[in-house]
Amino acid sequence: MTYQGKYCSLGTVPARWQAGVFSLLIHNGTGFRPSLGSSGSEVASYFDSLLFNDFFFSLREDAVVAFAAMAHTEASTDPAMSERLGNVKKWKVLTCAITEKRLRRMGAMSFALRNFIRGAGKLPIVTFTWSDNGPFIGLLEGNGFVELYREPDYFGAGIDRVCYVRHFTAA
Ligand SMILES: CC(C)(COP(=O)(O)OP(=O)(O)OC[C@H]1O[C@@H](n2cnc3c(N)ncnc32)[C@H](O)[C@@H]1OP(=O)(O)O)[C@@H](O)C(=O)NCCC(=O)NCCS
């Protein structure tokens, strides 16, 4: 399946793509840990928190079918993470990645993530997930991410919060 791609901040894209992101969040938020909630206002505040992230959109016929969102972090805002990463000064955080349900397992997120990795340049990319999120973990491990650390039982008995990192490697 082929997708068109677009790399930009959520605040600068057409309203119909912003609506596409909102729709993806509201239809998937209940599976998240912690849950994004299913009420419009909970999703709206999460959506607002993503406004200044960089996004890569996977589009089909000008509709958003998947997106990966990324924030930029500096050592001064998270010294513990900087140390874990080998005292790097800057890194990217993959904050959110969602594919429309009916198009899952058809390469939409691989397409977004590969472009995203290119957009991160030489900076490491960090992301967090829950240990029973098989689809996302499969996607991360297939794209060069490795586990950095985990917080056992963070989301309840047997469900850890796991931090993955992708270090830059020359192609
Ligand atoms: C995780 C998610 C974004 C994957 O998106 P996707 O568009 O279906 O992923 P792709 O089709 O590009 O799959 C890429 C690779 O990821 C892995 N993967 C995807 N879905 C998988 C599944 N259900 N089980 C195991 N591995 C899976 C595979 O390695 C796959 O490659 P392959 O199909 O060649 O084996 C999607 O399942 C999703 O939106 N989940 C809900 C939201 C979420 O949990 N986001 C992550 C936390 S923010």
List keywords for this structure.
7 strands; 5 helices; globular; binds coenzyme A; alpha+beta; 171 residues; seven-stranded mixed β-sheet; 30% helix
SSE topology:
Elements: E1 4-9, H1 15-28, H2 40-49, E2 54-60, E3 63-74, H3 79-84, E4 90-99, H4 108-119, E5 125-130, H5 134-142, E6 146-151, E7 161-166
Parallel strand pairs: 4-5
Antiparallel strand pairs: 1-2, 2-3, 3-4, 5-7, 6-7
Helix pairs in contact: 1-2
The site of coenzyme A has 22 residues, from β4, α4 and α5.
Rg, nearest Å: 16 Å
Helicity range? 25-40%
Across the major sheet, the strand order is: 1-2-3-4-5-7-6
Would you tell me the structural class of the helices and strands? Answer: alpha+beta
The poorly predicted ranges are none
Number of strands: 7
Bound molecules: coenzyme A
* Overall 3D shape: globular
Order of helices and strands: EHHEEHEHEHEE
Strand content: 25-35%
First-to-last CA distance: 24 Å
With helices defined by DSSP (H or I, 4 residues minimum), what is the helix count? 5
Specify the biggest β-sheet: 7 strands, mixed
Mean pLDDT: 93
